[in-house]
Design brief:
The structure is a single chain. Helices cover 11% and strands 35% of the residues. Strands 1-7-4-3-2-11-10-5-6 form a nine-stranded antiparallel sheet. The longest helix is centred in the first third of the chain and has 8 residues.
């Protein structure tokens, strides 16, 4: 089967995503699917993940935070998978970057920047990303040999370096996990849930 080529990244070379479409409305199927495709999408396998705060401090600062990931495996039907990110009671009025990862927590390994979510005044967001999820991978050369690494974990970062100051103070680390190479710390990850499907 012909698959779209994924941008191959390592943790040291994080770049913006190519070919990922984000929809603010969770029910949007792109508007171009046939009736038969919509039926197949509804019947596609689904993987669910609950992301949890990445540190005890963040858990204390956002005690009611919930991030639910729904991965609908639809590449064989429509050419991409549908990844829904539904967030509740996060820090409000902030952008968060979303990555597929080799390892959920530090040092993360290979990573792919797949999109952003933005919380409203109540800390809620609901976004849908269209991309290859189930077979996402990174490829690199190690000792002259090409190695493939599956990206089946998910992490979210505070997009702005100061966005985590409400919890961690003004001297919290600046990380490279945003398109402008400046972000806050990882806010949530999938360390405590089942990984995404991998081939």
């Amino acid at each position: 089967m012909n698959r779209k080529t994924l941008t191959l990244l390592t943790a040291a070379a994080i770049a913006a995503t190519t070919g990922t479409t984000a929809f603010a409305s969770s029910g949007d199927d792109g508007g171009s699917l046939t009736r038969a495709q919509r039926v197949q999408v509804r019947g596609a396998p689904v993987t669910r993940m609950d992301l949890t705060p990445s540190s005890p401090d963040l858990a204390r600062c956002m005690p009611n935070a919930r991030v639910k990931i729904t991965d609908r495996s639809t590449t064989d039907v429509i050419g991409f998978d549908i990844l829904r990110v539904k967030a509740r009671h996060l820090a409000p009025n902030r952008d968060y970057t979303v990555f597929l990862l080799e390892t959920a927590g530090a040092p993360f390994g290979a990573a792919e920047y797949i999109g952003d979510i933005t919380t409203d005044a109540r800390g809620n967001a609901d976004n849908e990303l269209h991309l290859i999820v189930d077979e996402a991978f990174s490829s690199t050369i190690v000792n002259g040999e090409r190695e493939r690494v599956d990206l089946n974990q998910v992490g979210m970062w505070f997009a702005g370096p100061a966005d985590d100051d409400f919890c961690l103070g003004p001297n919290s680390p600046v990380t490279p996990f945003d398109g402008d190479n400046e972000a806050g710390v990882q806010a949530f990850n999938s360390a405590n849930t089942q990984p995404l499907p991998a081939p």
